[in-house]
Amino acid sequence: MPRFAANLSLMYNEVPFLERFAAAAADGFEAVEYLFPYEHPHEVIAARLQSHNLTQALFNLPPGDWAAGERGMACHPGREAEFARSVQQALPYALATGCRSLHAMAGLLPQGVSPAQARATYVANLRAAARVLGPHGITLLIEPINTRNMPGYFLNFQQQAHDVVSDVGEANLKVQMDFYHCQIMEGDLARRLEKHIAGVGHVQVAGVPDRHEPDTGEVAYRYLFDRLDALGYTGWVGCEYIPAGATSAGLGWLREYRRSKKA
After folding, report:
1. Which end of the chain is more exposed for a tag (fewer CB within 10 A), N or C?
2. What are the residue ranges in the chain where pLDDT is below 70?
3. Smallest Cα–Cα separation from 45: which of 98, 6, 4?
4. What are phi and psi of 96, to 5 degrees?
5. 143 in active site
């Protein structure tokens, strides 16, 4: 059965961030992920994980000025030094929390920059970051994101991401396959998963089209969860969705799926 991680940026917003660790553990999650931890000292995050026996599955490198609309900088020519500093900022958090996967957001395609220029910068930055993180046993992830939620984002398609990974040529660079984004942009989820499974380092789920619980909308997630098992996927499945109501009350999908696997 897949191992599920609660996304604390989207889930458990009923309580402050540092209280979400306890809430996730109380609901039976064994791992958590979130967008960014940098508002809190890494020692504080690590203590929350330890006290609730939680694994840190994933978080993102600093994305630039998020409040101003930036969504990463890895593809931005002229910001290579800033991107390198973001890796160094994330590394102490990864080491303190035992996190073995970091996501580098590509960023929006800058005005006046060609896709070819952005891609060359992206590949070079990812190669440098992967080489920094590799000796620590950390996998660097890239994620295709749909253009509806994030217009102008540089990386949108699964094949596009795996082609970047091939060009970077570092064993610790993999693709974060978010079924929500993939369904909106491409569909054919099971076949895409089968094609790319060897290069998938993390999976995320949400209902489509409204990004609520995965038992809502058009995607047959129980089937996909079973396919993950059949394909031998052993990583985490991040629950990166916006609860339609109270987070815990909306976890019937998870409780039911776990019961079905024990029957």
Report:
1. C
2. 263
3. 98
4. -70, -35
5. yes
> What's the confidence (pLDDT) of residue 263?
64
Of 143, 170, 213, 256, the active-site residue reads 143
Task: Give the per-residue pLDDT at 261.
Answer: 85
The number of CA neighbours under 13 Å toward the Cβ of 193 is 25
Per-residue exposure over 160-188, b if at least 16 CB sit within 10 Å of its own CB, e if not: ebbebbeebebebbbbbbbbbbbbbbbee
Catalytic residue from among 30, 39, 218, 240: 240
Q: Is residue 209 reached through a cis peptide bond, with omega within 30 degrees of 0 on the bond before it?
A: yes
Asked if 189 and 183 touch (Cβ cutoff 8 Å), the reply is yes
Task: Report the DSSP beta bridge partners of residue 59.
Answer: 102
Number of domains the chain is built from: 1
Inter-residue contact 234 to 201 (CB < 8 Å): no
213 annotated active-site: no
Residue 205 is part of a domain; what is its CATH number?
Answer: 3.20.20.150
